[in-house]
Design brief:
By secondary structure, the chain is mainly α. 83% of the residues lie in helices and 0% in strands. The chain has helices at residues 8-32, 36-47, 58-63, 65-70, 74-96, 101-127, 132-158, 160-195, 205-227, 233-236, 242-262, 264-287, 290-305, 307-322, 326-355, 358-373, 376-387, 391-402, 404-415, 419-427, 432-461, 463-466, 474-483, 487-512.
């Protein structure tokens, strides 16, 4: 064989290449199920280059989002759906819409006022009132205003063809783009299907119907609503009944009242505990001579973050003292310290418990999402119902808003500990307590300290909001500035809050570094 110039290795490689090519074609046929020869040619063309290779898919261009949705390419279908809906809305508005409707409504409203002012003018002329000139100027101004709006309405009405042509241009561009990217998107999904057979393939009839109904319904509804605004009440406002909301309000109020009646003793004990801790911190921070507090703060900053940061901290403290914000700042730090300490004392053990228990963490995760996403003014209402108005309620509100980061980052840090390190420690006879205190917590320490930092910062962000329910401190100064539009006081107090945050951040971050 070698005498004839035939290399057995090359022959084997060519046979393997042919076998691979045939297998790929069979996979493509199985995946697309419709018009396989076309897709085999297009996928080979796309796969031959690492760059984007435009190919034309007529069906994707004609049916657009329906084709993409039926193929399971929803990440492409939805953006194209939005673009096509926008284009069709523009076309319908330009051809059939009343573009001057809003302007005519404004004219009708102004004409009612104009009619009233004309009658007032006539009455003033008859009575010889000295307000004749004022009424006349008002009438002239309203008439000029109506003239300007009418000219604007005429100009808008004449823009119909331009709007329709713009929509048509957008639609054509979208169709061309869909035709050019369809095969590339489908080839990428084919690659995913090769490695994961759960990826949907083919073109099932049910998916075609579902995609078509969904796309047509969305486009038709949007087109009708924007082209003929106000004509169909169902598209403008959600059908509801005021009694539904009233019934829901009654249920919530009854439930809160029942909880308050049956848990009064528990919340009284909790309130006393929070107030005791808060009073202790206020005694330390507010009643202790300012020289002691300032010196300890500067020393702590120096030990954790360095001399330069300690100098900055001294300057920040001098700013608060010289401008008369010292006592308010210490009150704020006492409130913040109470909320942050309770959040950390509860959050770190909860995160440690959740890190190795995925089911429990999946249970509390929606609760933490609710605590972080619900606006503070909403959960202030039940907090006031249980704790009343005052500093304990402000502490609870601050804990709800700022207590979740330390839990999340503790879980993240402990789950990020390499399993190889844990297995090595276990192989050397480490028990659970040693594993936790000498392996898991030290390695998760940076993440846990970052969670503590975030909890402190978020708690400080609640200073102004908590002042609404009697938190006092710097938040009260900012709130007073907002009420009386005292710009200077608000800015100066806001800088004090900023400096408190910077001092705490440097202390915590300095320790982490």
């Amino acid at each position: 064989m070698s005498d004839l110039g035939i290399n057995p290795l090359e022959d084997t490689e060519s046979e393997a290449a042919l076998a691979y090519a045939e297998e790929r074609r069979e996979n493509i046929r199985t995946f697309v199920r419709t018009n396989p020869d076309y897709y085999i040619a297009m996928f080979d063309k796309i796969g031959a280059s690492s760059r984007f290779t435009p190919t034309v898919n007529i069906m994707a261009g004609l049916f657009g989002p329906i084709w993409f949705g039926a193929r399971g390419l929803w990440n492409w279908a939805l953006p194209f759906l939005i673009i096509e809906a926008l284009a069709l809305v523009q076309i319908a508005r330009g051809l059939f819409g009343d573009l001057a409707a809003d302007a005519m409504d404004r004219i009708a409203s102004i004409e009612g006022t104009l009619d009233l002012r004309k009658r007032q003018l006539e009455a003033a002329i008859e009575s010889g009132s000295d307000r004749v000139d004022a009424f006349r100027r008002t009438v002239e101004s309203l008439e000029a205003n109506i003239g300007g709006i009418r000219a604007e309405a005429e100009a808008m009405a004449s823009e119909g063809p331009t709007i329709a042509l713009t929509g048509l241009a957008i639609l054509i561009i979208a169709k061309i783009a869909q035709a050019l990217v369809a095969n590339t998107a489908l080839e990428s999904r084919f690659s995913d299907w090769l490695s994961d057979d759960t990826v949907r393939s083919g073109l099932p009839q049910t998916h075609i119907i579902l995609s078509a109904v969904f796309m047509v319904l969305i486009v038709l509804t949007a087109t009708v609503h924007y082209s003929f605004p106000g004509r169909y009440a169902l598209l403008t406002s959600f059908p509801t009944d005021p009694d539904i909301r009233l019934t829901g309000i009654t249920w919530v109020e009854d439930f809160i009242a029942w909880c308050v009646r049956n848990s009064e003793t528990f919340f009284d004990i909790l309130t006393k505990g929070i107030r005791g801790l808060l009073d202790a911190l206020e005694v330390i921070l507010v009643q202790t001579p300012w020289i002691v507090i300032a010196s300890l703060t500067i020393l702590l900053t120096w030990l954790t973050a360095g001399l330069r940061t300690a100098i900055y901290s001294g300057a920040f403290l001098a700013y608060m003292g010289l401008l008369g914000f010292w006592e308010a700042a210490m009150t704020t730090l006492a409130l913040l310290g109470t909320a942050a300490c309770l959040s950390i004392v509860i959050g770190i053990p909860l995160g440690m418990f959740s890190a190795r228990r995925p089911r429990f963490y999946s249970f509390i995760q929606p609760i933490m999402d609710f605590m972080q996403t619900m606006p503070a003014f909403v959960f202030m209402v039940p907090v006031i119902a249980f704790f009343g108005v005052g500093k304990p309620a402000a502490v609870i509100v601050t804990m709800i808003f700022g207590g979740t980061p330390v839990v999340r980052l503790t879980v993240l840090g402990l789950r990020g500990v390499p399993e190889s390190v844990r297995e090595a420690a276990i192989s050397f006879g480490a028990n659970k307590w040693y594993l936790l205190t000498k392996v898991d917590l030290p390695l998760a320490g940076p993440s846990i300290r970052a969670g503590i930092n975030q909890t402190i910062m978020l708690s400080l962000a609640m200073v102004v909001v908590a002042s609404l329910i009697g938190a006092k401190g710097l938040g009260e100064d900012v709130l007073e500035a907002l009420q009386y539009a005292n710009v200077g006081q608000g800015i100066l107090a806001g800088f004090s809050i900023l400096f408190c945050a910077m001092i705490l951040d440097r202390i915590v971050q300095g320790g982490r570094k």
